[in-house]
Amino acid sequence: MLSFTLGRLVSLCLSLVVASLVIFLVIEVIPGDPAAYMLGINAQPDTVLALKAELGLDKPMSVRYITWVTGMMQGDFGQSYTYRAPVTQMVEDRILVSVPLAVYALFLSIIIAFPAGIYAASRLGRAGDITVIGATQLGVAVPNFWFAMILVLIFAIKLRWFSAGGFPGWDKGFWLSIKSLSLPAVALALPQAAILARVMRSSLLDILGEDFIRTARAKGLNRRQVLWGHALRNASIPVLTIIGLQFSFLLAGGIIIEQVFFLPGLGRLIFQAISARDLVVVESVVMLLVFLVIIVNFAVDIAYVLVDPRLRKK
Amino acid sequence: MKINSSLIVGLGLSLFFLSAAILSFLWTPYDIEVLDIPEKLRSPNLLHLLGTDHLGRDILSMILMGARTSIAVAMLAVGIGMGLGVPLGLWAAAQRGTWLDELIIRGNDIIFAFPSLIIAILITAVFGSSAVNAILAIGIFNVPVFARLTRGAALSIWNRDFILAARVSGKSSLLISAEHILPNIMNLMIVQGTIQFSLGILAEAALSYIGLGAQPPTASWGRMLADAQTLVSIAPHVAIAPGMAIILFVLGLNLMGDGLRDFLDPRIRVDRA
Fold first, then answer.
1. B113–A293: do the CB atoms touch at under 8 Å?
2. What residues have CB less than 8 Å from A205, skipping those under 6 apart?
3. First to last CA, chain A
4. ipTM above 0.90, yes or no
5. pLDDT digits (tens, 9 = 90+) for A113-145
6. A194 lies within 8 A of chain B by CB
7. CATH architecture for residues B5-30+49-272
8. What is the pTM of this model?
């Protein structure tokens, strides 16, 4: 277990290093001088130079990279060019919208997909199964931002049950905030739930065909006992992989859904920063998102081993 | 043989949108670059079968033109993925167990771990919003998908007797990969290609929706939805039509992929709903 964890830890660090290098280099080749851009067309050359020095843009690339990475490790994400404020401070509030939204959507995805997948597997080839399969086919084909617009049309504009967008802030009440995240979370969760239900179903079907299931049935357990006692735990491994992957889809997908619902999350921050060419913000927020995703994947890898001791030998 | 209904329905839907794209080169009901403001936001009627948008443009014509953009972007993105991923996968399988194989696997894993949409946004944001950059951004993430699949499938074929026979007859691993391995994994690639194509359609729509894909005057379903967002309460039809186009096309491609998998591989032609 220890060597396994250490091995995963090494590849986690490697991924983070490569990720930070890629993001840094992509940002480096951006056309246009950020200092000149920020000061406008009429800026004097020496003012631009002074600002470059202030932002550290005159230093060599390698020095800037090291400064950026070591800064982030200490929780310092740099200074925003345009807002003239620390990025860490700008990120703090927004991450409390983006991450809860992804978690909420993942939760919805799981509570929809598990029963649907289990039900379909237990009704293999019958009407119930075919209905679930059909629904999942449709679910993966729907773009979540379109679904979000339709949800707004029905539940916010026609029925007026929810607001069409915006976020009150957690200090205005927990349930109020949850309510304003509900439509976005449903929109995000639907396509993911469809994928998860299919994986649950096929994984369960694979396991139900195994010899040990027949043995369990032969020793007199009924279908329900076999399903809950033997099949589900074994079927959960591929499902865990998908749940891990889904978290990254949900975080990334959240960026778009935030646009639909005008939620003040990381996605909106990235778009504002992109249009303002605020490179420090873009770079740090993208890195933060990638970091979250890689950490979740790491946690999933560790979770496998806890679920399935057979994997420890590898 | 049991009639493969998902293949037929999927093929039908996919061909329908493909013909729509081809038709747009020859004819559209209206010119989408001509604005007709007095006719704006008309509901579907006999003159405009799907209605008009906020600038009075005919939505059916825009859907036809948008099909062209969607197909071009998705097809080129799959082309990039296959063009780079398949040779990489074949190469890794031919050099199995060496540092090169390891390097290719690790490289793929790292790209795979990235949230693709975030990086696509980064790429299009840095290099500018255009259909070409959208293609590149989507295409890059298709590479590991194909490389992984190719390597896995190729590895199992490398163990077969007829490959041993080819090696004994003195063929190089390059020649074996091209002549014997590739034809044997082609079915798998076609199925995966269909799936990646449908994901490409969705990705293009998403990028265009947030303004990072094809730029006006190029028509794109994602852009149409972006324009529709503020109008959905007064004229729902502007959002319904492009949305349905995306859903039906993606649904068709996915059904076609499932159907092709069953059709091309008779061994798994059992109880698939």
1. yes
2. A121, A124
3. 10
4. no
5. 999 999 998 888 888 898 998 999 999 999 999
6. no
7. Orthogonal Bundle (1.10)
8. 0.86
